[in-house]
Amino acid sequence: MKKLLVLVILLASTFFVFTACNGGESKSENKTETSTDSLELDSASCSNETIMDPNNPKPMALMMREMVKNADKMRAKLESGENLDSSAFPFLRFYLVEPTDPNVLEPQFFENARLFQESYKAIFAHQQEQKKYYNLMINRCVKCHESYCSGPLKRIRKLPLN
Ligand code: HEC
User: Fold this and answer.
1) Half-sphere exposure of residue 118, counting CA atoms within 13 Å on the CB side?
2) For 147, how many CA atoms within 13 A lie in the half-sphere containing its CB?
3) Ligand 1 centroid from CA 149, angstroms
């Protein structure tokens, strides 16, 4: 568990060094390029199974796997009547690390990420209603995945609490 987290952080920082070395100023230009490119692709990404390479996962894919494991743990704790502590479940900034398909990095993706982050924080701001806010957070996973990566939806739809 801890090992994987360290690996994810390592991978994430390598990515940053890599992008920094590739000329920081041209970053904004690249962004507009990719967002126009992705107009046709629209909801492409990992709805297509072949884009998800399970043997050579990118940092974003690794973080997503970590997020599923965390959600499973949250769910189990809530089911057994325990409260969730924010220090045990830090928010993973998945939107800052390299995805398998760079076309996903467009404004709508970042807006979905922002809404997801808000709903994640809301769980810890509502200690008395954590089950409800946990389910709202999972809804945000679903919302983004409906647009960008429909492959894991089956898995994600098992996460809500009754
Ligand atoms: C803002 C959009 C967004 C949100 C929110 C989001 N995801 Fe993802 N998710 C993605 C994208 C894009 C990928 C593809 C990442 C890649 O392949 O690099 C992905 C990949 C995944 C994968 C596949 C990882 C693999 O093994 O390749 C799983 C599982 C997953 N997400 C689960 C979740 C869960 C659970 C949540 C909520 C706790 C969540 N996602 C929230 C966009 C999102």
Assistant:
1) 7
2) 19
3) 7
Answer yes or no: is the C-beta of 78 below 6 A from any ligand 1 atom: no
How many angstroms separate the alpha carbon of residue 142 from the centre of ligand 1?
9
- Closest ligand 1 atom to Cα of 46: 14
Sign of the dihedral defined by the CA atoms of residues 113, 119, 122, 124, in that order: negative
Nearest residue (by CA) to ligand 1, atom 21, is 64
Q: Report the percentage of the chain scoring pLDDT > 90.
A: 65
Render pLDDT for 15-33 as a digit per residue (tens, 0 to 9). Answer: 444 433 333 333 333 333 3
Distance 90 CA to ligand 1 centre (A): 17
Q: What is the pLDDT of residues 94-153, one digit of tens each?
A: 999 999 999 999 999 999 999 999 999 999 999 999 999 999 999 999 999 999 999 999
Helix residue ranges per DSSP H, the chain:
2-21, 27-41, 59-79, 107-125, 130-148, 153-156
Rg, the chain, Cα only: 16
Residue nearest to atom 3 of ligand 1 (CA): 144
